[in-house]
């Protein structure tokens, strides 16, 4: 029996048809797609199309240094076993774990480069300087395609606290007139018209590139930098911090909270947060008087410590955790407080005090993170001690809240904080955390919300161990894992609560 030619997209070709004839027999009329090693064959009637598949495309990535100090990206197909070497990262790059750009299982790479005009203003006796964030898309963390640049400024008002900052908004799909539409974006501080630093939100629809959102702010004020969080698909909340410098600069509030329901295109002010309104009122009441530099310095120091994180209980309510400075007599102190935000109104309410610290540094160190899980929000806090040197050699605590009011003990992270990285939810029932243990960087997992931990993977063995200079911080190398895809399909930035950013996924 003679073999009939196999039909390819460009016509019939008898040569090599045997290589795909088994697909015709094995697929049958009910199947349209079959994967073989190195290829995907798609059948449409009697037409076969064979696509080549990248053999070294991993699902999870981590960035760190070898024992010799060489930066490398390592990856694995399912975050189990041993991570393999992917290659050298883009020069000066960081890999963003919270963006899955354009639904194509892409990571974002980000680096800072020098600006052609680094000194752009003189402020309060010091210089404002400018750098450029270069953003790129990447499939593997090493082969990048640059697609956007954003100017960013920093200052030397508080040398130890000033930094170039670009805060990425988690990407997702929102409802746009009944049609799911991609969105993403980022907060950055830039120099505006008239030489005034301004808060900017760069929004991205996945098609036309970045555009400026209509952000709100104080005219003539001194913008420090803002952060953004997601409350529901396309519903963002932004926390902008401001400095003071006396006349002629405006006396802005230390923190301005705004909300967007259209993924950052427009913003509106929200009610004064009762969760931390009383504390911030003691800061806002300080005089904006050039003749009283100590008051201005106290205000600016307080602004540098304000921090707010959120994690969802549902699309209607999120838990809010905040580091809130306040003046106690002439001393700057800080509390860590917990409450909730009503997504519809933007009202931030509550009164739970988790810690009343003697210094803002102790309060900021205490609050590690918040992670949303189906059972509620896991609140991660570090131990308390009068001396910060006694905190980092201990493990962080894991507790659960289901209402933003009370906390229930769950367990602890597996190792001391200076040997532990960032905790991520890999699925609705699984947490993972990178650690340095027994001479290797490893990935540990918990399937009981942090009550217990077991080994899952080895990220790197010939890696840089924590140094004496790292003793008061989390892991400096292989400290985070980037879950870009499942197989060759993109995954949501929040695998445990994918409904937070994606309107296509139903949730109450």
What this model shows, in words?
The chain is mainly beta and 508 residues long. The protein contains 4 helices and 36 strands. It has helices spanning 18-27, 277-284, 293-305, 360-366; strands spanning 6-8, 11-13, 33-36, 39-44, 47-52, 60-65, 71-76, 81-82, 84-87, 94-101, 106-123, 126-138, 144-155, 166-176, 179-191, 197-204, 210-212, 222-232, 235-243, 255-260, 268-269, 307-312, 317-328, 331-342, 348-357, 367-373, 376-381, 397-401, 408-412, 424-427, 430-437, 440-446, 454-460, 482-483, 485-486, 489-490. The strands form 10 sheets. The protein has a 5-stranded mixed beta sheet with strand order 8-33-32-31-30, with no helix packed on it. A 4-stranded antiparallel beta sheet has the order 9-7-6-34, with no helix packed on it. The relative contact order is 0.11. Mean pLDDT is 82; it is low at 1-40, 50-55 and 98-102.
Tags for this entry?
globular, four-stranded antiparallel beta sheet, five-stranded mixed beta sheet, mainly beta, disordered N terminus, 508 residues, 36 strands
Helix vs. strand class: mainly beta
Estimate what percentage of residues fall within beta strands. over 45%
Helical segment count: 4
Question: What distance lies between the first and last C-alpha atoms, to the nearest angstrom?
Answer: 61 Å
| Strand tally | 36
Helix content: under 10%
**How big is the Rg?**
25 Å
What is the topology, as strand order, of the major beta sheet?
8-33-32-31-30
Task: Quote the average pLDDT.
Answer: 82
Low-confidence stretches: 1-40, 50-55, 98-102
**Major sheet: size, sense and barrel closure?**
5 strands, mixed
- Rough outline: globular
């Amino acid at each position: 029996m003679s073999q009939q030619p196999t039909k390819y997209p460009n016509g019939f070709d008898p040569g090599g048809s045997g290589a795909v004839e088994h697909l015709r027999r094995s697929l049958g009329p009910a199947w349209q797609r079959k994967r073989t090693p190195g290829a995907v064959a798609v059948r449409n009637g009697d037409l076969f199309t064979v696509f080549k598949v990248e053999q070294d495309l991993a699902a999870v990535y981590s960035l760190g240094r070898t024992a010799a100090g060489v930066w490398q990206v390592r990856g694995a197909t399912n975050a189990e076993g041993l991570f393999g070497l992917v290659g050298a990262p883009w020069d000066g790059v960081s890999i963003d774990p919270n963006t899955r750009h354009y639904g194509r299982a892409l990571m974002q790479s980000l680096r800072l480069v020098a600006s052609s005009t680094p000194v752009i203003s003189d402020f309060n006796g010091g210089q404002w300087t400018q750098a450029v964030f270069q953003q790129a898309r990447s499939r593997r963390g090493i082969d990048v395609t640059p697609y956007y640049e954003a100017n960013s400024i920093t200052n030397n008002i508080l040398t130890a606290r000033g930094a170039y900052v670009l805060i990425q908004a988690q990407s997702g799909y929102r409802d746009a007139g009944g049609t799911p539409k991609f969105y993403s974006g980022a907060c950055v501080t830039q120099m505006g018209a008239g030489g005034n630093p301004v808060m900017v939100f760069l929004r991205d629809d996945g098609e036309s590139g970045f555009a400026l959102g209509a952000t709100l702010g104080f005219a003539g004020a001194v913008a420090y930098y803002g952060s953004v969080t997601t409350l529901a698909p396309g519903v963002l909340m932004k926390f902008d911090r401001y400095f003071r410098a006396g006349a002629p600069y405006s006396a802005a509030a230390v923190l301005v909270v705004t909300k967007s329901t259209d993924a950052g295109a427009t913003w509106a002010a929200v009610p004064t947060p009762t969760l931390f309104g009383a504390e911030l009122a003691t800061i806002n009441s300080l005089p904006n008087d050039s003749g009283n530099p100590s008051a201005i310095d106290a205000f600016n120091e307080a602004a540098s410590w304000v921090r707010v994180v959120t994690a969802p209980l549902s699309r209607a309510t999120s838990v809010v955790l905040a580091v809130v400075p306040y003046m106690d007599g002439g001393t700057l102190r800080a509390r860590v407080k917990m409450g909730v935000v009503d997504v519809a109104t933007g009202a931030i309410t509550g009164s739970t005090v988790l810690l009343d610290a003697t210094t803002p540094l102790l309060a900021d160190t205490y609050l590690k993170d918040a992670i949303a899980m189906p059972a509620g929000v896991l609140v991660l806090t570090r131990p308390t001690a009068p001396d910060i040197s006694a905190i980092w050699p201990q493990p962080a605590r894991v507790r659960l809240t289901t209402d933003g009011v009370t906390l229930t003990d769950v367990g602890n992270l597996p190792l001391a904080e200076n040997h532990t990285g960032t905790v991520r939810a890999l699925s609705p029932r699984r947490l993972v955390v990178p650690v340095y243990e027994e001479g290797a960087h490893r990935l540990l997992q918990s399937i009981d919300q942090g009550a217990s931990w077991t080994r899952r993977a080895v990220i790197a063995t010939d890696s840089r161990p924590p140094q004496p200079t790292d003793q008061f911080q989390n892991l400096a190398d292989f400290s985070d894992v980037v879950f870009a895809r499942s197989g060759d399909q993109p995954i949501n930035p929040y695998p445990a609560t994918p409904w937070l950013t994606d309107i296509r996924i139903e949730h109450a």
